[in-house]
Amino acid sequence: MTTPGRRSSTFTRLLRHGFTDPSAAERLLDGAELAPVRADPVLLEALGATADPDLALHGLVRLLEAQPDPTARRELLDTLIAAKPLRDRLLGVLGASEALADHLARHAGDWQALVTYEPRDLHRGVAEFERGLAEATDPVSLRVAYRRCLLSIAARDVCGTIDVAETAAELADLATATLRAALALAEAAAPEDAARCRLAVIAMGKCGGHELNYVSDVDVIFVGEAADDTAGADEEAKALRAATSLASHMMRICSETTVEGSIWPVDANLRPEGRNGPLVRTLSSHLAYYQRWAKTWEFQALLKARPVAGDPGLGAAYVAALQPLVWQAAERENFVPDVQKMRRRVVETIPVAEVDRQLKLGPGGLRDVEFAVQLLQLVHGRSDTSLHSGTTLSALSALAAGGYVGRTDAAQLDEAYRFLRSMEHRIQLHRLRRTHLVPEDEADLRRLGRSLGLRTDPVAGLLRAWKRHASVVRRLHEKLFYRPLLDAVAQLAPGEARLSAEAARERLVALGYADPAAALRHLEALASGVTRKAAIQRTLLPVLLGWFADSADPDAGLLGFRKVSDALGKTPWYLRLLRDEGAAAENLARVLSAGRLAPDLLLRAPEAVALLGDGDAGGLAPRGRAQLEQEVLAAVRRADGAEQAVTVARGVRRRELFRTAAADIVGSYGTEAQPVEADQGALVDRVGSAVSDLTAATLGGTLRAVVRDGWGDTLPTRFAVIGMGRFGGHELGYGSDADVLFVHEPRDGVDEREAADAANRVVSEMRRLLQVPSADPPLIIDADLRPEGKSGPLVRTLKSYEAYYRRWSLVWESHALLRAEFVAGDEDLGRRFIELVDPLRYPAKGLTEDAVREIRRLKARMESERLPRGADPKLHAKLGPGGLSDVEWTVQLLQLRYGHREAGLRTTRTRGALAAAADAGLISAENAATLDEAWVLATRVRNAVMLVRGRAGDTFPTDPRELAAVGRYLGHGPGHVGDMLDEYRRTARRARTVVEELFYE
Question: Which residue has the higher pLDDT, 500 or 393?
Fold first, then answer.
């Protein structure tokens, strides 16, 4: 009797043996079923060795209860205690699989299938499984026999008698035997159909690759022919109908749910045309489809094609006919973009909530390994038949043996893949359900960890091991493609198998490099030798090459990296920055391969690469105007003369343009550490504000330098620069000129002519210095929006502006002044200029009807005269329908009409004025959103063109690679250029509808 308040010794022993509910276990052990062996220590030890002792004990009691009589129950117990092989197998299955415990409870004699312990029993094949299924005469008995065979596989799996690869192969062999048995049942039910045709079943996917899961769809393709080779068209059609009937019946036998459940779904959707195509085709029809219509993924799927049932001759003929096409797939025109699309599509289809639990499709999952191996097979299998394996681990081994994959990488991937597949097997085995999600329940995780041999803190140990192996896969997934390229050019380990020059060329072409010979030269220059620098490059390049290949122009990315490395290779911090600061290397790769502008800016002063890091010297956040002005003015004070001062100011401008462009690219492309910026308007605003602030600081510094050089501390006249157009609106793009007005006011006692001469000299010198040819991009000052345009004086006094606007001002000038904002020089003069023009741009009574008509006439004239000849209006981001001009003129008309009464409209910024108009009820929220979306997209198109081409443009590029790069910047992946253009047309068309309603009402 147990002392009150103290636990029994049995309870303590149960806890020690891994039971989580010792009280329930104690009750079961004390029950009548286990009375004969209750005291036997062998039983408790065996239960404690299982994945889930509680589940194993419960399953054993159920099995004993299911025995038909006491004699059968005694036989089971005696055999269990006396025969260790049976004890380990039976209890191992009961502790790992609730579903197989259910099967044993329904079929109480099937435990006998686990008694056999012969050498030939250790590794069963198709023949043994066919014998196990031979007595099945209908779908129900086939399911029972299938589960009995599955029981033997699971028993040897959980006991470690067979490893994960052997388990997967046996599951595929069992599937093969089952398909044959199901086809035999279908043929027996329709002997006339069977006599009329020849039908071959081709296994695909994991079944075809000899690596099936416990629960998985079995992918197949059917090939049919008339039984008589000389049959005519009518007989062939009848034969195909007969074959289709047999194939359909075979699929139902396996897939339909009966009293014994189902076996697994048979999926024929990998066939030509998928579910829209005929279920059965002739061999010639298959061949014609693959030769003419098949996509890259369909050839990738054929890597695993294997005849498993039906007519063996026809199956062999199918494989012989189609295999040559598989190995020509890498030569297809769209191979590279197809591959890139397939990789993205897999990740994009995973529900967000499941990404972190996905064993198969998530980052660092099974699909990463399988995809990488299959891609390398397609690229190199053309010339190396040793790679023609449908099994992932066998193919990986062959790739390593041939030098196509580094041996260390292959070994690490092999280990990680085996672990992940073992996890997948044990997760599915529990309830025999198809799932690839790691469970969240603590009990499930504990059982899973223990089933994999993790007995000390199984949950924590399992999660650590899983994350470690997933991390290995994620890290090696890209390196797998590129590290052998470096081994091929560096040649540091004599005797090691490595890629031939031709194999390296093939791989680079397959990964998107247009000039593989040049790429190999760059790699050799960067990675050859035994220096520390070369060693670090060999560590960095496999990852960098993958990022380059993910862009629209990998060649440009690699060339840019070589140039930067040549320029900075001897500095102690450069390679250390890329190696040690996680963001720097990926940011650099994105920037170098996104187009011409950012690399050009960087290569003029490569030390700016430090901005890409995440350390103290780094940071891509734009600097504010005050900070920029402080730096520029400090440099001006230290400089010897105006030219040196402006050279420094232009250098700051170049560096900050690079910072802005790099941040824009990283935000638009996204990185591992930073997802794509979801708010495209925020990206546009950031670029516009940063470039406008930078331009203002540059002008302010240049003005100070010119004044200091010519007049000392004080100019004879007060002088201010007024920003106009996009400059005044804080909306400058990378290639924008600086639209300005210059205003001055003679100081007390200074002659007006002297003051005017000084002001004009300042303007002339500022324009000259900012355009002097140098390594820094010029800043073009455009003063054409001044009174009288190009015919008027460059600089006017404030009184002259006042007199002109009072007497001569035209509607277009009031329109242009909506963007006027002080940007540099004398703040008080700038403030008084703005006070002067406010009544013009926000007239007290709004616009007259004549003025409105004039504005509409001016816009119509601009559309007809300024659109470049030959340009497609629908794709012109500035002047086309629904483009920048449409949106801005519509918003500005609202400002001119209602700015006097709505304070929110008195802003120089387009988006701010648009939001204010919506808040004031002058435009519906829906129409405002439509115009805003169009304006943001058109602005991003212009920014993209400048980033990609290195020169400004208002239309999409015609060069395919440049167009693809613009697409990537705008968020459209490889092969989606058409979608990008359609999206632009659609967005602009909606905006134009709103413009016609509001502007021309």
Answer: 393
Exposure string for 904-927, b = 16+ CB within 10 A, e = fewer: bbbbbbbbbbbbbbbeeebbeeeb
Q: Say if residues 165 and 211 touch (Cβ distance below 8 Å).
A: yes
CB 659 within 8 A of CB 611: yes
Residues near 800 by beta carbon (within 8 Å), at least 6 away in sequence: none
The token duo for 711 is: 């007049």
Which tens digits make up the pLDDT trace of 686-745? 999 999 999 999 999 999 999 999 999 899 999 999 999 999 999 999 989 999 999 999
d(CA 484, CA 499): 6
- Rounded distance, CA 302 to CA 829, Å? 76
How many other CB atoms are found less than 10 A from the CB of residue 174? Answer: 26
Tell me the C-alpha distance between 848 and 527, whole Å: 71
How many degrees, rounded to 5, is the angle at CA 364 between CA 477 and CA 592?
A: 50
Report the pLDDT value the prediction gives residue 7, as an integer from 0 to 100. Answer: 57
Per-residue 3-state assignment (H helix, E strand, C coil) for 422-472: HHHHHHHHHHCCCCCECCCCHHHHHHHHHHCCCCCCHHHHHHHHHHHHHHH
What is the token pair recorded at 392?
A: 């992932």
DSSP type of residue 121: G
What is the distance between the alpha carbons of residues 815 and 822, in angstroms, rounded to a whole number? 17
Tell me which amino acid residue 409 is: D
Dist CA 29 CA 39 (whole Å): 9
**Cβ proximity of 359 and 436 under 8 Å:** yes
Tokens of 573: 């911090």
Question: Among candidates 371, 430, 418, 398, which has minimal Cα distance to 166?
Answer: 418
On the CB side of 516, CA atoms within 13 Å amount to 15
Q: Which of 985, 950, 945, 979 is nearest to 965 (CA)?
A: 945
What are 335's two structure tokens? 């191979």
Asked if residue 576 lies in contact with residue 651, where contact means CB atoms within 8 angstroms, the answer is: no
Query: Residue 489 burial (CB < 10 Å; 0-12/13-18/19+)?
Result: buried
Out of 24-33, 351-360, 926-935, pick the least confident.
351-360
- Within 754-805, strands assigned E span 781-782, 795-797
Chain center to CA of 779: 37
Cα 872–chain centre separation? 32
pLDDT tens-digit series, residues 615-627: 444 588 889 999 9
Of 232, 329, 321, whose CA–CA distance to 283 is shortest?
Answer: 321
Which of 943, 954, 260, 893 lies closest to 657, judged by CA? 943
> Max Cα separation, the chain?
127
Q: Phi and psi (nearest 5°) for 782?
A: -120, 115
Q: pLDDT category, 343, cuts 50, 70, 90?
A: low
- Sort strands 717-723 and 821-825 into parallel, antiparallel or unpaired: antiparallel
CB-hemisphere CA count at 13 Å for 796? 21
- In 532-619, DSSP assigns E strands to none
Helix and strand counts by DSSP (H, E) for the chain:
43, 10
d(CA 825, CA 714) in angstroms, rounded, equals 12
CA 91 to chain centre: 44
CA dist 300 and 849 (Å) reads: 67
- Residue in the structure block whose two tokens are 């509910």: 21
Question: Residue 876: beta bridge partners?
Answer: 955
Give, in order, the Cα–Cα distances in Å from 569 to each of 566, 653, 786: 5, 25, 50
Query: Which token pair is 676?
Result: 């794509």
Question: How far apart (Å, rounded) are the C-alpha atoms in residues 352 and 54?
Answer: 34
